[in-house]
């Protein structure tokens, strides 16, 4: 254990910014298989954090192929207590235009069962509430930091997660708008729910690249690439403020997994005992 408590999940651009030094790579094995890549240890002005590219270093995993269990378990085993997710999304509301951020406080799971979504099962029985899937203290800190960085953002909203890799049909997009969802993406479920099971504070920066197909608005590839570049720059600005702020002002995480496990300890195997020791520590 190195004492590093912050983990960032996102794309490769997050650690290729001025002032961030990659100091080490950790190859972590888990009972759930291999994470998307080695866990990168990085330093920002004396503040260390871990980073993992969700889709792998060469973007080789579709959203359904990402090993979310291994990613979250590996970060927890390294001692991470706070996870900031960075994700590209489509907007389902007029008030969240491309190049703006949304900091969701709710998720809607519209995946189709292809993903392993819990650490429980195979002899370990447990139930964790996801009524508040995002840690509200971390959410508040993210919203304040977006404001401080001058990034246009929505301070709340629901993120609907679809299976992918296909985008929605227009009929589906309008259904999701009818749900009241703010943004649509393919990666934050079960990532957020697994973090809850692991007792890790989780919040996400949802970076709007375009309006989903409900809005008949043509975008060229050049325009989308410009938006993505602007979003990356804004994400870097937010993270460069957030990482030292969270390092210097950590808050006590309210772990909802403490009393979640119903299985009797004496009935568990050595591997099952190890899994629970990591998740519940």
Automatic annotation (TrEMBL):
<dbReference type="Pfam" id="PF01048">
    <property type="entry name" value="PNP_UDP_1"/>
</dbReference>
<keyword id="KW-0660">Purine salvage</keyword>
<dbReference type="GO" id="GO:0017061">
    <property type="term" value="F:S-methyl-5-thioadenosine phosphorylase activity"/>
</dbReference>
<feature type="domain" description="Nucleoside phosphorylase">
    <location>
        <begin position="5"/>
        <end position="243"/>
    </location>
</feature>
<keyword id="KW-0328">Glycosyltransferase</keyword>
<comment type="pathway">
    <text>Purine metabolism; purine nucleoside salvage.</text>
</comment>
<comment type="similarity">
    <text>Belongs to the PNP/MTAP phosphorylase family. MTAP subfamily.</text>
</comment>
<feature type="binding site">
    <location>
        <begin position="87"/>
        <end position="88"/>
    </location>
    <ligand>
        <name>phosphate</name>
    </ligand>
</feature>
<feature type="site" description="Important for substrate specificity">
    <location>
        <position position="221"/>
    </location>
</feature>
<feature type="binding site">
    <location>
        <begin position="54"/>
        <end position="55"/>
    </location>
    <ligand>
        <name>phosphate</name>
    </ligand>
</feature>
<dbReference type="InterPro" id="IPR000845">
    <property type="entry name" value="Nucleoside_phosphorylase_d"/>
</dbReference>
<dbReference type="InterPro" id="IPR035994">
    <property type="entry name" value="Nucleoside_phosphorylase_sf"/>
</dbReference>
<feature type="site" description="Important for substrate specificity">
    <location>
        <position position="168"/>
    </location>
</feature>
<keyword id="KW-0808">Transferase</keyword>
<dbReference type="InterPro" id="IPR018099">
    <property type="entry name" value="Purine_phosphorylase-2_CS"/>
</dbReference>
<feature type="binding site">
    <location>
        <begin position="210"/>
        <end position="212"/>
    </location>
    <ligand>
        <name>substrate</name>
    </ligand>
</feature>
<dbReference type="InterPro" id="IPR010044">
    <property type="entry name" value="MTAP"/>
</dbReference>
<feature type="binding site">
    <location>
        <position position="187"/>
    </location>
    <ligand>
        <name>phosphate</name>
    </ligand>
</feature>
<feature type="binding site">
    <location>
        <position position="12"/>
    </location>
    <ligand>
        <name>phosphate</name>
    </ligand>
</feature>
<protein>
    <recommendedName>
        <fullName>Purine nucleoside phosphorylase</fullName>
        <ecNumber>2.4.2.1</ecNumber>
    </recommendedName>
</protein>
<feature type="binding site">
    <location>
        <position position="186"/>
    </location>
    <ligand>
        <name>substrate</name>
    </ligand>
</feature>
<comment type="function">
    <text>Purine nucleoside phosphorylase involved in purine salvage.</text>
</comment>
<comment type="subunit">
    <text>Homohexamer. Dimer of a homotrimer.</text>
</comment>
């Amino acid at each position: 254990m190195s004492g590093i408590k912050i983990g960032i999940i996102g794309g490769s651009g997050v650690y290729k910014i001025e002032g961030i030094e990659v100091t080490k790579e950790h190859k972590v094995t888990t009972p759930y298989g291999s994470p998307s890549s080695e866990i990168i240890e990085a330093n920002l002005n004396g503040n260390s954090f871990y980073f993992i590219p969700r889709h792998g270093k060469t973007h080789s995993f579709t959203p359904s192929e990402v090993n979310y269990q291994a990613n979250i378990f590996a970060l927890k085993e390294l001692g991470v207590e706070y996870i900031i997710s960075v994700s590209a999304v489509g907007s389902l509301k007029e008030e969240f235009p491309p190049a703006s951020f949304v900091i969701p406080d709710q998720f809607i799971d519209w995946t189709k069962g292809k993903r392993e979504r819990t650490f429980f099962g195979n002899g370990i029985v447990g139930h964790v509430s996801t009524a508040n899937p995002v840690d509200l203290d971390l959410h508040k800190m993210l919203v304040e930091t977006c404001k401080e960085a001058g990034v246009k953002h929505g301070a709340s909203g629901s993120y609907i997660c679809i299976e992918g890799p296909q985008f929605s049909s227009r009929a589906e997009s309008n259904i999701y708008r009818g749900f009241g969802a703010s943004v649509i993406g393919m990666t934050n479920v079960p990532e957020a729910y697994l973090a809850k099971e692991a007792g890790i504070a989780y919040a996400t920066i949802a970076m709007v690249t375009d309006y989903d197909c409900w809005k008949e608005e043509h975008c060229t590839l050049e325009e989308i690439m410009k938006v993505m570049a602007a979003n990356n720059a804004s994400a870097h600005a937010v993270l460069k403020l957030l990482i030292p702020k969270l390092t210097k002002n950590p808050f006590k995480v309210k772990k909802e997994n403490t009393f979640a496990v119903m299985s009797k300890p004496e009935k568990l195997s050595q591997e099952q005992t190890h899994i629970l020791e990591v998740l519940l520590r």
